[in-house]
Each structure stands twice: as structure tokens, then as C-alpha cells.
Inverse folding.
């Protein structure tokens, strides 16, 4: 996919959102994959052409590249690029959900909407991205939501069929996370099924009560429900709260 084709794909994606495309799209072989960021007054979507070419060869469909670009557009539209240093798993899943929604609106099958993450997604996740299965669930949710809208199916309140034990809030992260009865760390926004992306383990014989983990990230929770993590210099830093879940 050359730069002209990428710009055309971005235009088509944004058009299905009812907006005008005001993004700068550029090739950047210094990147490993694709990224959305703000530079000056420009909203940029940059990608490594070799990465997209390799994915196209593996997926055998151009929709795989469109899915990647839609995910990055989601970061801009949802305001995630205003905090470029933040590592928020819920943000990534929200953009995957947007990608699935938009691809369905573009007439893409669910199989083709999922192919990019099935080819390029890491089964265990990466430093910034949740595990592949969580991302597949998010894309599927977005695609199925768009299909219900296209068929005129009335939206019904979502009924949670699992027991939450704790609610997790992290500093600087607008997402809300929960811990269920099985010790799974999940992302859930009241309008979609919970998506598992990490775990919560009870600690024995420790000054801390719980440990929260996802990919290479590890946090500990003390007896006062404060969430801590160690900085690069080994110093503990408060990063959030984990409190008992109370159903409204």
C-alpha cells in the first residue's frame, strides 16, 4: 500500500464516520508498525510501508491494512493522542472496537475485519497492546454493533452475566476496569461485553494484598486499596485505586 492508497483508505474510513478527513498520512520506515500522533497543529497517521506490505501478503486482503488505519484514526477521534505517553489498554480496545464498527459499515465481512489482528496481533500482547484474543473480541463487538444498527435492531440494555468483585481506576486513564470473581482483569463500559486482558492475584504473606498484571505491566494493591507500581528507579508510586464493586 503506497502513500496515495493509504490516503484514499483514510478518506473512505472517515467518510463512513460522517466526518471530513483532516489527517496527514505519511510513510515512515523508522516505525515498526503504525502510529497516530499530533505534531504542531497536524493530526498525523504514520505507518511503515514494509509492515503493511508484509501484512497484506500474509492476510491476502487489502482490508487488513484498512483495519490498521481505522484503528489509528480511532486514537485521534477518541482523543487518545492528547496523551501520547499514556499506556491504557482500554484505549486500544476502544480503537479495535471502532475499527470493527467502521469496517462493517464499509461492507466488510467479519472474517476480513478480523484478519489483520489475527495475522499481526501478539497472542500475549505487547507493552502497549492487550493480548490478541482481547483485541479480537473488541473488533467483533464493534462489527456486530454496526450490523445491528444496519438491520434496525433496537438496542437493549446489556445484562452483565458475571460477578465483579472490584472496580479499578488508574491515574490518567479515563477507562474503568473491573476484577471479576475468577480473578480476571477486564475492560467494560456498560455498553458492551466485558473483555478480559489481564489478571488479579491475591498475595500471601506480603505487605500488599493483590497484584494486577497485564503483559509486562505489574501493579500491587495495599490494604487501603491504593494501587502502586515501581518507577524505573525502583521507587514506589501511587497510580490508582481498587475498591470493592458495589452494584448500583
Amino acid at each position: 500500500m503506497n502513500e496515495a492508497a493509504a490516503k484514499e483508505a483514510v478518506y473512505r474510513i472517515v467518510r463512513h464516520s460522517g466526518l471530513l478527513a483532516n489527517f496527514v498520512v505519511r510513510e515512515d520506515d523508522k516505525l515498526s508498525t503504525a502510529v497516530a500522533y499530533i505534531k504542531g497543529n497536524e493530526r498525523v497517521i504514520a505507518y511503515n510501508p514494509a509492515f503493511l506490505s508484509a501484512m497484506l501478503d500474509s492476510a491476502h486482503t487489502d482490508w487488513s491494512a484498512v483495519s490498521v488505519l481505522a484503528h489509528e484514526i480511532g486514537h485521534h477521534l477518541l482523543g487518545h493522542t492528547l496523551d501520547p505517553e499514556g499506556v491504557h489498554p482500554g484505549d486500544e480496545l476502544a480503537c479495535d472496537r471502532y475499527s470493527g464498527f467502521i469496517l462493517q459499515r464499509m461492507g466488510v465481512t467479519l472474517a476480513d475485519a478480523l484478519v489483520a489482528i489475527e495475522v499481526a496481533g501478539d497472542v500475549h500482547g505487547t507493552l502497549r497492546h492487550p493480548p490478541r484474543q482481547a483485541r479480537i473480541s473488541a473488533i467483533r463487538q464493534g462489527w456486530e454493533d454496526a450490523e445491528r444498527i444496519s438491520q434496525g435492531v433496537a438496542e437493549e440494555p446489556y445484562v452483565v452475566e458475571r460477578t465483579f468483585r472490584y472496580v479499578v481506576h488508574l491515574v490518567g486513564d479515563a477507562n474503568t476496569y473491573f476484577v471479576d470473581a475468577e480473578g480476571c482483569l477486564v475492560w467494560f463500559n456498560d455498553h458492551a461485553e466485558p473483555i478480559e486482558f489481564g489478571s488479579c492475584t491475591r498475595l500471601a504473606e506480603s505487605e500488599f494484598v493483590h497484584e494486577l498484571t497485564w503483559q509486562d505491566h505489574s501493579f500491587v494493591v495495599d490494604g487501603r486499596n491504593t494501587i502502586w507500581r515501581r518507577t524505573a528507579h525502583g521507587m514506589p508510586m501511587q497510580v490508582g485505586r481498587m475498591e470493592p464493586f458495589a452494584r448500583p
In short: The mean pLDDT is 88. Residues 164-244 form one domain. DSSP finds six helices and eleven strands in the chain. The CA atoms of residues 125 and 215 lie 6 Å apart.
